[in-house]
Amino acid sequence: MERLKVNLCGTELDNPVIPASGTFGFGYEFAELYDINILGTFSFKGTTKEPRFGNPTPRIAECTSGMINAVGLQNPGVDKVISEELPKLKAVFHKKVMANVSGFSVEDYAYTCEKLDREEQIGWFEVNVSCPNVHGGGMSFGTDPDSAAKVTKAVRSVTSKPVIIKLSPNVTDIISIAKACEAAGADGISLINTLLGMRIDLKTKRPVIANKTGGFSGPAILPVALRMVYQAASAVKIPVVGMGGVSCAEDVIEMMLAGATAVQIGAANLVNPFACKEIIENLPRVMDKYGINNIKDIIGGAVNG
Amino acid sequence: MKQELFTVKENTPVAKDVYKIILAGNTDEIKAPGQFVNISLDGFYLRRPISVCDCEEGKLTLIYKAVGRGTEYMTSLENGARLNILTGLGNGYDMTKSGDCPVLIGGGVGVPPLYLLAKKLIEQGKKPSAVLGFNSACDVFYEEEFKTLGVKTAVVTADGSYGAKGFVTDILNDFDYSFFYACGPEPMFRAIAKTAKTPGQYSFEERMGCGFGACMGCSCKTLTGNKRICKEGPVMESGEIIWKD
């Protein structure tokens, strides 16, 4: 459908709906339920240089209108992603996929992206400098403009594919970090990753999550996400991928009005495995309701207006 | 996995804080005893995973304990209430390993999935027996239901207020068994691991995000690699488990 198409860093998407990394695995669980080729694309499970088991359990806690996770980047490592996950994905997903990459040093990021750069299934890199659940890496790169710029430059130099930097909301000044990534050669930015949070079990009187803290996501964080996407989109010229609590077609439109070129759906996939399918199906009706003819016309509508 | 709408037909207490809920809806996707369903509840963000106690065509029986706000809310569901449920989750018990006379070992709200297992084993001509452990007399449920199936059933309580006093492992080896199937708390599993004379299978529990393998929230390490309790589990082989201290 022509009216849903958007262009993300030079590649046309059939629609702006992208399942977010860590909530969609490598796609197979959802491919059993519906044809995932209806998606704009999806961002696969965060991949690191070495295999990782991640954090001890419990890794999950419920919140009002949301959840906390502290998975800790469990993944089979870049070599197995290339040898096992991508060939399996090819059977069920025929579009370009977004490769989500994480690391514990600048060199890690560059190593993993360089290996994945050879894979023609990959259309974009989403470089996660904002994981709140690992120590000595992840979020520490995304909370400081200089570090974020260093990772951006390192990845930029090893791939010809578009590089999108995924930013953390756990910062005092998102604008300086977004600008630093843009100046370092990023083709886009995506935000927000999860908000650092905690729950405490009244019976044990200890944090619910074994890692003590985790990343808060779900509908409760949508207003924070909208505010930060709006701020970032106002400050940079590169495309912004918006996410954080998006659960329905109306939320997608709101996020695009805040400045997002495409929109990721995260926690919603976990509680409603059909969330993205329903959003894509509902978008035309909701666009009609609000007099939107072509979805790309509303990108940044609330910013420029 | 399928997403289905179910209607509440009955929701009644069977022991202290333990309820039986009978639901009408499409149960086609439930293929093996030991599988679970994941229930969406109004006002709660995450679904509640509950193991299948019994399943006939169009009729699903679950037994749950009110342990937190979500399950407490479940106790208030009235007949006719509609529930969005993901069905047919997890691997379930492997009945091909049972031998002729497997023993089913249940602890507390770990007992329910063993009921459907007993039924299916009997259908296959096997002779299962059951050892059911509870804390106290007020916690005991489903003894009669197991006996009605024709299962030789022994109940123990930790405080001795019903049946023999002690733990399931105190009487496990009074039975002659070909294999074991267990569901209950992990301390019970560790005791079984030290006591059992045969291999067996355990059904594990963990806090889950999605319940269908997408979020990696319930991963565990095993001797045969990392597994998701919701997807490659909840049932695991006795020989592959790495016991936590």
Structure in a nutshell:
Chain A has 305 residues and is of the alpha/beta class. Chain A contains ten helices and 15 strands. In chain A, strand 4 and strand 5 form a beta hairpin.
How would you describe this protein?
The complex is a heterodimer of chains A (305) and B (245). With 305 residues, chain A is of the alpha/beta class. Chain A has helices at residues 28-31, 78-92, 106-117, 145-156, 174-183, 222-235, 249-257, 267-271, 275-289, 301-304, and strands at 6-8, 11-13, 17-19, 60-63, 66-69, 97-101, 122-128, 163-166, 188-191, 195-197, 200-201, 206-207, 214-217, 240-243, 260-265. Chain A has a single domain (2-55, 69-198, 216-304), classed as Alpha-Beta Barrel (TIM Barrel), CATH 3.20.20. In chain A, strand 8, helix 5 (174-183) and strand 9 (188-191) form a beta-alpha-beta unit. Chain A is globular. Chain B has 245 residues and is of the alpha/beta class. Chain B has 2 domains: 2-89, Elongation Factor Tu (Ef-tu), domain 3, CATH 2.40.30.10; 95-240, Nucleotide-binding domain of ferredoxin-NADP reductase (FNR) module (Rossmann fold), CATH 3.40.50.80. Helices cover 16% and strands 36% of the residues of chain B. Chain B contains 5 helices and 15 strands. In chain B, the strands form 3 sheets. A 7-stranded mixed sheet of chain B has the order 10-9-8-7-11-12-15. In chain B, strand 11, helix 5 (186-195) and strand 12 (200-203) form a beta-alpha-beta unit. In chain B, 46% of the residues are buried. The model of chain B has no long low-confidence stretch (mean pLDDT 97).
